Amino acid sequence: MNFELTEEQQLIGQSARDFGKQYLEPIAVELDQKGEFPKKVVQALAKHDFLGLLLPDDVGGAAAGFVSYVEVIEDLSRYSAAVASIVNNHTIAAYAIQQWGTADQKKEYLPGMAKGEILGGFAIFEHGPTPGVGTDALVAKKQDVGYVLNGKKAFVRNAGEAGVYVVFATTDPALGAKALTAFLVKSDAIGVKVGEKLETMGLKGCPVADITFENVVIPETAVLGAVNGGAAISAKALAVASVAEAAQTVGIGQAAVEHAAAYAKQRVQFGKPVATLQAIQTLLAEVATDCHLARLGLRNAALLIEEGKPFEVEAAMIKSFLARLGSKMLIDTCQVEGGFGYSETMPLPRLFRDIAGTNLLDAPGDFPEKIIAASIA
Amino acid sequence: MSILSPEQKAVQQAAKEFVAKIIIPNAAKFDKSGEFPMLLLEASKLSNIFAMAVPKEYGGLNYDALTQALVLEEWGYGCAGMGTTLAASVLSMDSVLIAGTDEQKRRYFKPMLNAEIGSFGLTEPGAGSDAAAGTATAVKKGDEYILNGTKCWITNGGFATVYVIFANTDPAAGVKGISAFILERGLPGFTIAALSVGLAQRALDTCVAHVHTCFPGKPFPGQTLQFKLAEMQIMVEAARDCLHQAMRLRDEGDPYSKESAICKTFCSDVAMQVSATAVSLMGSYGYTSELGKYMRDSKIMQIYEGTNQIQRLVISRAVLAHPPAPAPSTAQKAGK
């Protein structure tokens, strides 16, 4: 494989960095402090074609490949991982409609999603004794009118801002995952209730909330993919999402290590810049190495996705790698900046809180290592 | 825990109760507002806890080092922020204890008996890890000293009654004049170690409670999760043992500066690792819970009171100071 980005991929990355510098850098701190959804930034993202990156030309998308996409996410994350998280959740919802949607569904949602008029969200997790990708907290009952949804989904990102949610519900609680079905649910459907916005450690500005469904009637044409075929969709969408999320981690890590290196060069202790101390060099070098290896790993997974090849093992590997080392990147770079760097007037505390929200193991008992171990011949 | 004396156990129990009643219910509120928790001082008047290190002859509780560590662990369990208020106060009084005259002790311990607090001013904008680079000066004029300079990141600053401030009385002598202090400054690391152990235990407890909620009455899923919990428990237990051992050395009057540096480093690294693992394991539950605070609080434990890098310098010097005796050759071992 070629490890160099193509000229086009580099250009897209550059445009994301330019966008980040112009639109995200000035608002990142306020966004973190207030945690309000950045409507204007989302409009600007749409205007610069960052909300339809994976969508084809005919619906107004940029038709960029997945490698370009993760490059954009990494570059946006350098400036605001919260905004990158909004883009990711929206894009993966659009990706799911593009992958599994009917011609009518694509026509209904994708042009608006590419333009940023409709934001996407993913309602997949559930509370309760079987945490993670749930199977019985939301039930879709087949009736003459279509389906009636009752129950609750947990930790939905872009909640309250999305116009359409990809919602996973079971058509038969007794069958569990075998009856999991994906639905496209409009946010203004009667009975869709977005709960209170949850207080998160970081990634503030990307809203997270539970969504309750009370007798939500949806037509049969809102089924995404096959009835009872939701488990395969959720598995694949989550794997794709984990690669995109890894790009957030790498972007945050890269921003942190660059900031810490610059700090170390100007912070004088013991009569010289601390960057000249071996202990500091080692800390920076290890973070830079982890970051670089993670980037190669996720680009590899992204290329497989782009080429339509099996990518699940590589996606699990990058998730496993970053679940171990993601937060460590910030734990170590913060150490370089010491007491000064711990102050909230400095950027690393925000990055520290943000990176902890990437690569979460949202299904205890279901670890990426399982997929990897099973793949070793 | 049977190795603790009945007195130590009683103090530990009282600290647990105080923390459960006063600290835990208020921790989130003050974390959010960032205000100084005055209620802490009010509530502490009864227990006299800010005078826990003050000797009996000065009216204090005269706790030995291990007992102080037990109290600080509980405060760290409740809230590392409020725990730091106690730790910084203990630290400042430690300085008076080590180097103060009888009159100074009488005068400066007194506020602690009334739940007022102390503060320790060493760091300057240009003098963090390199404390010797401090430029604050104390110039003698008649029988008084005139202090000039800026200290920063001073815990309890603005709320303390007594400040122990480090300043140079002879800038010409500079580094040499205060180098003795720097050698000693590994000593107070135990307060941070104790807070860290409490913090790590809290993160682990939160994680375990979460697992029980997720899998009520069911076998826990997967060895991956089980072993991660085991790993966290191993680290917390080892950190506590490491701390208690250093405290026993101190209470016996044995040298313990290397051990103090080791336990400050190890305990704070453990707090960081355990809290980060807990957030990751609990997924979105962790990210939307108080675990985020434990992770943020753990980070400063690795930084203040001598960064863990400075502690490693102290430890490596101690390791290298005594070359090991040459190992006997194989032939000697075999008795030939």
How would you sum up this structure, described in words?
The complex is a heterodimer of chains A (377) and B (336). With 377 residues, chain A is of the alpha+beta class. Chain A has three domains: 7-119, Orthogonal Bundle (Butyryl-Coa Dehydrogenase, subunit A, domain 1); 121-230, Butyryl-CoA Dehydrogenase, subunit A, domain 2 (Beta Barrel), CATH 2.40.110; 231-375, Butyryl-CoA Dehydrogenase, subunit A, domain 3, CATH 1.20.140. Chain A is 51% helix and 16% strand. Chain A is built from eleven helices and twelve strands. A four-stranded mixed β-sheet of chain A has the order 1-6-7-10. Chain B folds into two domains: 6-184, Acyl-CoA dehydrogenase/oxidase, N-terminal domain (Butyryl-Coa Dehydrogenase, subunit A, domain 1, Orthogonal Bundle); 187-320, Butyryl-CoA Dehydrogenase, subunit A, domain 3. A two-stranded parallel ribbon of chain B has the order 1-4. The termini of chain B are far apart.
* Topology, number of strands of chain A: 12
What is the fourth-level CATH superfamily of the largest domain in chain B?
Answer: Acyl-CoA dehydrogenase/oxidase, N-terminal domain
* DSSP summary, beta strand count of chain B: 4
Could you estimate the helical fraction of the residues of chain B in percent?
A: 55-70%
End-to-end C-alpha gap of chain B: 47 Å
CATH class of the largest domain in chain B: Mainly Alpha
Low-confidence stretches of chain A: none
Radius of gyration of chain A: 21 Å
Which protein chains are joined by the largest interface, and how many residues does each one contribute?
A-B, 45 and 43 residues
- Average pLDDT reading of chain A: 94
Tell me the number of structural domains of chain B.
2
Structural class of chain B: mainly alpha
Shape of chain B: globular
Helix fraction of chain A, binned, reads 40-55%
Uncertain stretches of chain B: 177-186
